[in-house]
Design a protein that fits this description.
Chain lengths: ~290, ~60
């Protein structure tokens, strides 16, 4: 039998300078707005990373990071998409809002859960992380990812105030002692409101892609936002939480008594000052990154 | 307003697209292939006058 040896030219296999690129692929398009994406003729499959909108912070708890889904998508020259909006501010003395859902090529990435004022934190959906709990309340549950990997549970007691780790992590417990830090995951959970004096602080959970918003406190520094692929979370301010980082940008520091905004690409918003009844920061809008 | 921005890098000629709201900053200004230069804008197309994003459900009130 005659054998055939194929020559492979490895110099043709380029590695993108963008360190977030899947190996051998290059980031070709970043989509944060619109209802369809134009794909060049001849490109029939692309590798897509979808991120849902981050949840907004409450007067109290921080919002959860937006969900993340990734995979190969069969495309046409005009492929429809939906970009999930970041959770809008819920206003003073109220919960935040859940982030919107991002859709592309049959894949879905859900929004992060809202931070809570006096209730349980909002749950993440379709991979999103849970929001931080209001005073004395459980954090929101994180959601399982598209792959089926489980989400983290929201923290439900002073004895165990940290949100559970998971694809979408759980939110931190709203606490009078201890520290309701958001859980870590692909998407980080929101920090819970914290009424006790002194640190450590109710930081948002770190995410490998999106970070949770930091929780508010009574009068000292609030929790910092969790880190994400876009950088660091925003630092906590006096009695307010910082915004979590998104896929595309870091989180913001809050302004005055309003919590910091989540970074673009699904960062969760930070909690607003409870004593003044101010709303939390908005969540970062979702995005789609296309590699081919 | 949603705009499709088409860029090209001077270093290696990589063509890259960002489709975003007009008031948003560029997310990845440096060449994604070799990282040596920033992208230069070569074309922009207005796709719609409104930013189209799907809001999540409202949070429950107290």
């Amino acid at each position: 039998m005659e054998s055939v040896i194929m020559a492979v030219n490895y110099s043709q296999i380029a590695v993108g300078a963008n360190t977030n690129s899947p190996y051998g692929l290059t980031l070709q398009q970043t989509i944060t707005s619109g209802t369809s994406v134009t794909i060049p003729s001849g490109v029939n499959w692309v590798y897509a990373v979808l991120v849902g909108g981050g949840g907004s912070g409450a007067t109290g708890g921080g919002g959860g990071g937006g969900g993340v889904t990734m995979g190969w998508v069969k495309t046409t020259t005009s492929t429809s998409c939906v970009i999930g909006a970041g959770g809008a501010s819920g206003g003073g003395g109220a919960n935040g809002n859940q982030g919107g859902t991002t859709i592309f090529g049959g894949f879905v990435a859900g929004g992060g859960g809202y931070g809570a004022y006096t209730t349980v934190g909002g749950p993440g959906v379709n991979g999103g992380a849970g929001g931080g709990g209001g005073n004395g309340q459980t954090g929101g549950n994180g959601s399982a990812g598209y792959s089926g990997l489980t989400g983290g549970s929201g923290a439900g007691s002073t004895a165990a105030p940290v949100g559970g780790a998971g694809w979408g992590a759980g939110g931190g417990f709203g606490n009078t002692s201890g520290t309701g830090v958001g859980g870590a995951g692909v998407s980080g959970g929101g920090g819970g409101y914290m009424a006790a004096a002194g640190g450590p602080f109710p930081n948002g959970g770190n995410g490998s892609f999106t970070g949770g918003g930091g929780g508010a406190t009574t009068s000292y520094n609030g929790g910092a936002g969790g880190s994400g692929a876009g950088g660091a979370g925003g630092a906590g301010g006096t009695a307010i939480g910082g915004g979590g980082a998104g896929m595309l940008a870091g989180g913001s520091v809050g302004s005055g008594t309003t919590g910091g905004a989540g970074g673009s690409g699904g960062g969760g918003g930070g909690g607003g000052k409870v004593a003044s009844g101010t709303g939390g920061g908005v969540g970062g809008a979702g995005c789609i990154l296309l590699y081919y | 307003m949603t705009v499709r921005y088409e860029y090209k890098s001077a270093c290696c000629g990589h063509e890259y697209i960002e489709q975003r709201a007009a008031d948003e900053p560029m997310f990845f200004p440096t060449c994604n292939v070799c990282g040596n230069d920033d992208y230069e804008l070569v074309n922009e197309t207005v796709l719609s006058e409104t930013v189209e994003r799907a809001a999540g459900p409202e949070a429950p009130t107290e």
